[in-house]
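Field log, afternoon session.

UNIT: design team B
ACTIVITY: writing a sequence onto a fixed backbone
BACKBONE:
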């Protein structure tokens, strides 16, 4: 893929090791852990059949439940809405059921190797996602300040865009040791990764993304910073991230999380749904043919959790929306952490006070999308005067910000994501209905493409989402602000419960907002595996000596610990 503004290292040697979401905060090889023939571990036979609560049926919860079931435990999954969480795929009323829209996660980088394990496991296929100037994206239009530029490669854009690309490359290398870190991560050189990252965490924890740019001589030009914010790299403009910690951005570029994206054919929600229904070939205690669905009454998870508290014997007691009360030796909480502050009545005794503080300080990004179904991919038609595509993947400073064109062949109905926005840009849509949003979007795009009548191709009603307005989410995903590193460390390391007081153990945090790579499904998978290790350890189990788990090697690769005073 060629990004609008490329990442810092152009890979001249295509034979070098592939990148993976391998650190830098916790450089543990989750993909190797999953692939090992010894499996993830085992628990004593006396624990077989014991119920474990899994709160949240998104990807993290379903992965955790699936792996616990394979160990012989009985996961009891609670889900307030539907299996999938922010892997939410919807159809269009009255249209071909194969025509779908991804309301949450829709593009996944190859560096998400633990995620890919499960995609392969359930037999899903992926295909390139049409990001700006990706190799498989026919064309891209960049429209800023009323001036549009048509491009099939980055070289088709004006020189100023290449200047901004060069500035970003230089900024990363000079301010964040990008080339050295890229090399260390490809080689999985853990000591070198930790050496580089420890210095950067101490140096940059208090720095915003925008401040990092401003401190670079390469970005002394405000015009360059403005263009970079509006056009960005990989998936488009990143100005909505400017107030966030630069450490969040470095994690993305180090792991190439914003490059080479692929979408899941048929929709991403199929992944957790298929895991829910899957019958593992290797399973302990349970009969062959057991699945998560079969372990639950009528094949459905239990409803929303309304209360969590501790009871005698350091048990976790769960009350659900039906009034059912059950007590467990262990529980995994994978829903967005703000639910513990609002929707769920909780005892303070569930977590240490420092963890409550970290939960309260979690900063979520807002995000909105709107999709419409169309009769065909008309954007591939050629303009008679210019010979160009009549419409393109579009980045703009207008209300729509990002417009994506999604098709499954020239003679089939297709889908347009008219707008994908973040933060303040997302909040601008919040008061509007789906149809009101569509009208504003069509007007904005009509100013960019005055010859194109998008409306005449629309064959069904729009579908939309504003994640900040979703009652069980209240935001799209976590994004740390400057100074939040210590909070994130507390949440991520919560699975190492031997370090907690005895009366604070037994409930484990997981989910992508607990991970170092929030907003990426890989983080949901990794923290699920951490929690699985934690529950296994809690029940007196262990991994095979040939396949140590994340907790077994924790002391050697623990995240950098900054002083509190």
């Amino acid at each position: 893929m060629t990004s609008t503004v490329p990442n810092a290292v152009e890979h001249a040697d295509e034979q070098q090791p592939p990148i993976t979401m391998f650190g830098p905060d916790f450089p543990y090889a989750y993909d190797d852990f999953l692939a090992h023939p010894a499996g993830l571990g085992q628990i004593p036979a006396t624990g077989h059949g014991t119920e474990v609560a899994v709160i949240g049926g998104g990807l993290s919860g379903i992965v955790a439940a699936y792996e616990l079931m394979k160990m012989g435990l009985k996961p009891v999954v609670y889900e307030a809405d539907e299996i999938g969480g922010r892997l939410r795929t919807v159809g269009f009323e009255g249209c071909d059921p194969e025509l779908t829209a991804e309301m949450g996660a829709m593009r996944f980088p190859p560096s998400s190797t633990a995620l890919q394990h499960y995609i392969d496991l359930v037999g899903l296929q992926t295909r390139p996602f049409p990001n700006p100037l990706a190799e498989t994206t026919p064309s891209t239009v960049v429209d800023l300040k009323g001036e549009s530029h048509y491009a099939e490669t980055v070289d088709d854009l004006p020189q100023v865009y290449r200047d901004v690309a060069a500035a970003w490359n230089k900024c990363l290398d000079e301010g964040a040791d990008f080339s050295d870190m890229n090399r260390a991560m490809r080689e999985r050189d853990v000591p070198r990764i930790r050496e580089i990252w420890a210095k950067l965490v101490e140096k940059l924890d208090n720095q915003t993304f925008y401040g990092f740019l401003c401190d670079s001589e390469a970005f002394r030009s405000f015009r360059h910073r403005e263009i970079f914010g509006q056009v960005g790299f990989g998936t488009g403009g990143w100005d909505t991230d400017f107030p966030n910690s630069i450490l969040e951005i470095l994690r993305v570029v180090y792991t190439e999380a914003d490059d080479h994206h692929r979408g899941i054919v048929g929709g991403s929600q199929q992944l957790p749904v298929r895991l829910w229904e899957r019958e593992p070939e290797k399973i302990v205690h349970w009969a062959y043919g057991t699945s998560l669905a079969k372990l639950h009454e009528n094949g459905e998870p239990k409803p929303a959790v309304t209360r969590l508290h501790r009871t005698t014997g350091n048990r976790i007691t769960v009350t659900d929306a039906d009034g059912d009360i059950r007590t467990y030796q262990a529980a995994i909480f994978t829903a967005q952490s703000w639910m513990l502050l609002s929707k769920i009545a909780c005892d303070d005794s569930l977590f240490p006070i420092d963890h409550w503080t970290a939960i309260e300080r979690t900063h979520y990004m807002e995000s909105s999308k709107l999709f419409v179904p169309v009769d065909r991919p008309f954007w591939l038609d050629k303009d008679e005067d210019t010979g160009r595509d009549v419409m393109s993947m579009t980045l703009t400073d207008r209300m729509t910000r990002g417009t994506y064109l999604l098709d499954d062949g020239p003679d089939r109905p297709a889908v347009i994501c008219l707008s994908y926005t973040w933060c303040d840009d997302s909040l601008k849509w919040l008061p509007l209905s789906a149809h009101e949003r569509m009208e504003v979007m069509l007007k904005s795009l009509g100013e960019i493409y005055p010859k194109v009548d998008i409306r005449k191709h629309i064959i069904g009603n729009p579908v939309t989402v504003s994640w900040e307005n979703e009652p069980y989410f209240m935001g799209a995903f976590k994004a740390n602000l400057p100074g939040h590193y210590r909070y994130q460390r507390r949440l991520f390391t919560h699975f190492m419960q031997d370090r907690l007081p005895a009366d604070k153990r037994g409930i484990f945090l997981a989910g992508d907002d607990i991970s170092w790579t929030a907003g990426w499904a890989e983080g949901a998978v990794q923290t699920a595996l951490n929690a699985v290790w934690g529950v296994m350890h809690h029940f007196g189990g262990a991994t095979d000596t040939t396949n140590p788990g994340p907790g077994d090697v924790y002391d050697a690769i623990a995240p950098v610990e900054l002083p509190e005073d």
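LOG NOTE: The longest helix spans residues 159-176.
NEXT ACTIVITY: expression trials, pending approval
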